[in-house]
Amino acid sequence: MSPMLRQIKTKFDEALASGAITFTNTTTSRISSEGVEFQIRLAPALVAKPASTLLSAATPSQLPKPNPFLPHDQKLFVSTIHGTHNLLLNKFCIVRDHILLTTREFQNQYNPLNVEDFTAILEIMKEMPDTMTFFNCGDKSGASVLHKHVQIIPVDKAGVPMNDLFSLLEITIPQGNPFVVPTLPFAHAAAFLPLSLSAVSANPIDISIHSSLITSLYRSALLESFRNAGFDYTPFINPPDPTVELPNPLPPSYNLVLTTRWMLIVPRRMEMWNGISVNSVGFAGMVFLKKQEDFEQVQQKGMMNLLKELTFPRHLESP
């Protein structure tokens, strides 16, 4: 066990004992949909999670003020990463050791990730390779806090359910270029990382170089994902001031999933379907539901069909 993971586990146990975090065990089921074994977790604790503080474009003047990350709760604080980010426990979690990586100074959640973000992410995933990072960007993405943050959760030995689709493509698709997954029936862009994170050394220079490569690949995939959805994201790729509380106009929403081998970016059309909210983990093949009725709806609808409802049709075909 790495020192960072040991520190997170110790802090998690302390926070749980003090009541600083809300955690509940979940019941897990699997639903097969178009070649993916989706992992469905029933999590009643989600009912207690506060509503989103992000705003739609219709109400830019009514910006809510609560910011749970500035200042952060010391009982949730794990460490500082590179002087640019704080590593915090997620207050409302249904997975043990669920952590948040937040910018130390305010930046808004609509901003694209930058090289500092990816440097911090890479350092964490190097120490904890059995994890998945995700970024909910925008009011239709499932994001709940306006302060810029990514989330990192452990994955079991079976890995991320979407891995199966990517494993089939890894032989034929070159690393370092965006592509379309043939079997995903909605607009998106994916990419294999230039070098698997497990192969990157802990040398700060190597981490810096690889972080720059991943940042560049992410930006290319982000533009390509929206092109696949029929939109031009170029006006939003370089925000003039990332510290403004709410950009005007609001950039469109999307989800990012990042593993040690690949990334997936999905533009979002809606946050929820029939009251079921889906964030980035849904596009990794994992869905967290609040009620048994939600599970029954998902069974009847089919997970891939549900994801299609929340996204845009594909405008580009796979190579």
From TrEMBL:
One Pfam family, short name: Ap4A_phos_N
Taxonomic superkingdom: Eukaryota
Active site: 149 (nucleophile)
MF terms in GO: ATP binding; ATP:ADP adenylyltransferase activity
Domain Ap4A phosphorylase 1/2 N-terminal: 5-165
Coiled-coil intervals, chain numbering: none
Domain ATP adenylyltransferase C-terminal: 182-313
PANTHER family hit by this protein: AP-4-A PHOSPHORYLASE II, PUTATIVE (AFU_ORTHOLOGUE AFUA_5G14690)-RELATED
Protein name: Uncharacterized protein
Native organism: Synchytrium endobioticum
